[in-house]
Automatic annotation (TrEMBL):
It comes from the Bacteria. InterPro entries: LRR_dom_sf (IPR032675). This is Leucine-rich repeat domain-containing protein.
């Protein structure tokens, strides 16, 4: 629900919708009375997430507050995603200090890569943390053992402490000291890796016994489906992994429900075997060869599985 330039009556009339949607967006500014009312609502509905679109070039005007200035009214807020769209980088997130008990935080877009993150250190109940750009070594102290989900551009596992609470790890570019993964995050259920050009051996995933969901996106160093000890793999995703050839290990995942493979280097006969022999709810396949993609659509109808990526992660 967008609150830009809305009045009190709009907010009051849409509380039921807000309870269902659980999301507020702000970009162009909101009045103090509406923000104060929203803070009251946040006290009752703690699951509401604020998606805050920031432009450091724009300032408050006409009694409308925008950017991180809205946070002075929202001390009950627990979940925030900041997206910076501007020709000028965001230089500070210090106004996060207005928030009493932050539980999820995300920062993306154009912000200073050396931005000070110390304001996050006091929030010991953080469950989710996401940064679009790399964080500095000194900032690894904000990666607390309360976290359940982490999304980072890259991570050096030597700098993190053991966290048995972490269930989901999303890496957008690279993992360093990957051999420490099971030691540091032994309870992972979901791991999503993109690029990871410096990793040639993915055996570091083998010992994650609770692992259920794996995604590889544009990981050109992966040539075969990993052989994992986890017996509960439910989702496997290989998107644009152009050197993936060997998929024989897929048949060992007896609990597999959803599989996605696009633009790989796999013999189509192997794809047909999986379509025929594995009882999958979803098998999304796209080939560089349009004739194979078209034939696969017929296989989806024949074996009655969903050939779509929509809802893959739901």
């Amino acid at each position: 629900m967008n609150l830009d330039k809305k009045d009190l009556s709009y907010l009051r009339n849409n509380i039921s919708f807000l309870k269902e949607n659980n999301t507020i967006t702000i970009e162009k500014g909101v009045s103090a009375d509406v923000l104060n009312k929203l803070n009251e609502i946040l006290n009752d509905i703690s699951s509401i997430k604020l998606i805050l679109f920031c432009d450091p070039n724009k300032t408050n005007r006409d009694n409308l507050f925008r950017n991180l200035d809205v946070l002075q009214f929202l001390n009950n807020l627990k979940h925030i995603s900041i997206i910076v769209g501007s020709s000028t980088p965001l230089e500070s997130i210090d106004k996060i200090d207005y928030i009493k008990d932050l539980q999820s935080f995300s920062l993306g877009g154009f912000y200073n890569k050396k931005i000070n993150l110390n304001v996050l250190k006091k929030h010991n109940n953080l469950k989710e943390l996401s940064f679009e750009h790399s964080i500095n070594k000194k900032d690894y102290s904000i990666i607390k053992d309360s976290l359940v989900k982490i999304k980072l551009k890259d991570i050096n596992l030597e700098y993190v402490s053991k966290n048995t609470n972490l269930k989901e790890l999303v890496i957008l570019d690279n993992v360093q000291n990957e051999h420490l993964l099971t030691q540091k995050y032994p309870s992972l259920k979901t791991i999503k890796l993109s690029f990871c050009k410096k990793i040639a051996d993915f055996s570091f995933l083998n010992e994650l016994l609770d692992l259920e969901n794996i995604s590889f996106n544009r990981v050109n160093t992966i040539t075969e489906v990993p052989s994992l000890k986890s017996k509960i793999i439910k989702r496997l995703e290989f998107l644009n992994c152009k050197n993936l050839q060997n998929i024989h290990n897929i048949v060992s995942y007896k609990k597999l429900e959803k599989l996605a493979i696009t633009d790989a280097n796999i013999e189509f006969g192997e794809i047909k075997k999986i379509a025929k022999n594995m009882l999958l709810d979803t098998f999304y396949f796209r080939s560089k060869d349009n004739s194979e993609t078209n034939e696969f659509e017929s296989l989806a109808l024949k074996y009655q599985f969903q050939n779509s990526h929509a809802g893959f992660w739901k």
